[in-house]
Amino acid sequence: METKSVQKSRLDTIFSIPAAAVVLAVVCNILWGSAFPFIKLGYRLFVIDSSDTPTILCFAGIRFMLGSLLVWLVGSALERRPLPMPRGKVLAECCAMGLWQTATQYFFYYSAVAQLTGSFGSILNSTQSFMGVILAHFLYGAADRMTPRKALGCVLGFGGVLVATLGNHGGGSAWGIAAMLIASAVFSMSGPWNKSVTRKADSFSVCCLNLGVGGLALAVIGFAMGGRLSPQSPAAVPVLLYLAFVSGAGYVLWALLMKNNPVSRIAVSGLLIPVVTTLLSAVLNGEPLFEWQYIGALVLVCVGIFLVNKPRKTPQKVEVTP
Question: What does the mean pLDDT of the chain come to?
Answer without folding.
Answer: 81
